[in-house]
Each structure stands twice: as structure tokens, then as C-alpha cells.
Amino acid sequence: MAEVGWKKGRVVERFDGKILDIKRVECESASGKRAVFTSVAARDWAIVVPLVQVDGVLSCVMVRQYRHGANGFFVEFPGGIIEEGEDTAVGVGRELEEETGWKAGSIKLAGKVSPNPAFMENSFYVFVAMDLEYHGRTDFDEHEEIETLIIPIDEVRRSMGTGEYANAMMVTGLFLAERALRGSTGI
């Protein structure tokens, strides 16, 4: 069978939200099948896995914040929504500084994935930051209340995917960061 996607037609319903839009779109396959599919349009997201040595121990700069969707606190890598027209690496560097007060000397793309290709249209980027400098100035968004944490990488590995470390994007982020760095830093 040939790999031919569905042709998108007119949008029949739409909800415009602050962080995402939900739309129902009429579509037609190459074989003539017709259907209405729901999709979520959102700006791209990005996180950064910031690595720093503390007393000879490789550690991650992380944030702990309340997440309304899950009604709880989560320990996460810094990141957020990339602003319209903003370079993704620049945006994630900005998020690192705003959320933690740390500035990266180098930022490297570790990977780009689709959060859920069944119905989401955006991309999720993971970067690794190294050569960090702490300047201490944060600039939280209006409703952000963030605690900055420095956590040894081994503890991050053990905790990832459990309890406050259960954000699926962070699990993906750690995997992609370690895969990108394997062999170059020995982590």
C-alpha cells in the first residue's frame, strides 16, 4: 500500500484557547474515504537538560512546580512554549535563565519528537545545556511559582518516571539527552 496521507479540507469546528486550539477538520484519504478528525494545534514546546558539576558530581538543574492538569507538584527540566518566530535553541535558553537564574555556555539539540501524532500538530524539542553560569536573576511568568533544584544525575535517573518525576516529557527528555551525549561526556 502506498504511503499517501489524508488531504485536509475545511475546519468545521474550532476552539481557540490560550495555549492550544482544538479543531475538527474534514479530511479525505487517497482512496476516497472521508472523515472528520479532531486535532490539537499548539505552539512547539522545548525543554533543556542543564548539566552542572557540583563538588565533582554531575548534576541537573531542575525546577519543581505545581501542575494544574495533574493537581500536583512535579520536578522537571526547565522549558516551556516557544514564542512565535523564536529560534528554538534561543527560546529554551531564555526559559532556562527565566526559570532558574542559570545561563548556558552551550546548548545542543538532543532530539525532536511528536508529543502525540494521533491528534497533536506540534513538536517537542529536547536540548542539553552545558558550561552553566549562575547569575541568580529569574523572571517567572505571571502565574509561575518555581523552586530551583540541583539534583545529582544518578538520583534523576532513579526517580524519573515515578512520583514527582512522572511527567512523560521529562522521561523523554532524559532519554534523548543521554542518547545525544553518550560517549561525549561519559554520562
Architecture overview:
The protein is α+β, with helices and mostly antiparallel strands. The chain has helices at residues 88-100, 153-159, 168-181; strands spanning 7-16, 21-28, 34-41, 45-54, 57-67, 72-76, 79-81, 102-113, 124-134, 147-152. The protein folds into 2 domains: 7-41; 45-181, Nucleoside Triphosphate Pyrophosphohydrolase. 18% of the residues lie in helices and 45% in strands. The strands form 2 sheets. Strands 4, 5, 6, 7, 8, 9 and 10 form a 7-stranded mixed β-sheet that branches. A 3-stranded antiparallel β-sheet has the order 1-2-3, with no helix packed on it. The longest helix is centred in the last third of the chain and has 14 residues, at 168-181. The model has no long low-confidence stretch (mean pLDDT 91).
Keywords:
alpha+beta, 2 domains, 45% strand, three-stranded antiparallel β-sheet, elongated, Nucleoside Triphosphate Pyrophosphohydrolase, seven-stranded mixed β-sheet, 187 residues, 10 strands
Percent range for helical residues? 10-25%
The top-level CATH class of the largest domain is Alpha Beta
Distance between the termini: 43 Å
Largest sheet: 7 strands, mixed
CATH topology type of the largest domain? Nucleoside Triphosphate Pyrophosphohydrolase
Overall form: elongated
> CATH H level of the largest domain: which superfamily?
Nucleoside Triphosphate Pyrophosphohydrolase
Sheet/helix structural class: alpha+beta
In the predicted model, the low-confidence regions spanning at least 5 consecutive residues are: none
Q: How would you state the average pLDDT, rounded?
A: 91
Taken as a percent bin, the fraction of beta residues is 35-45%
Number of helices: 3
Order of helices and strands: EEEEEEEHEEEHH
Overall CATH architecture of the largest domain? Alpha-Beta Complex
Strand tally, please?
Answer: 10
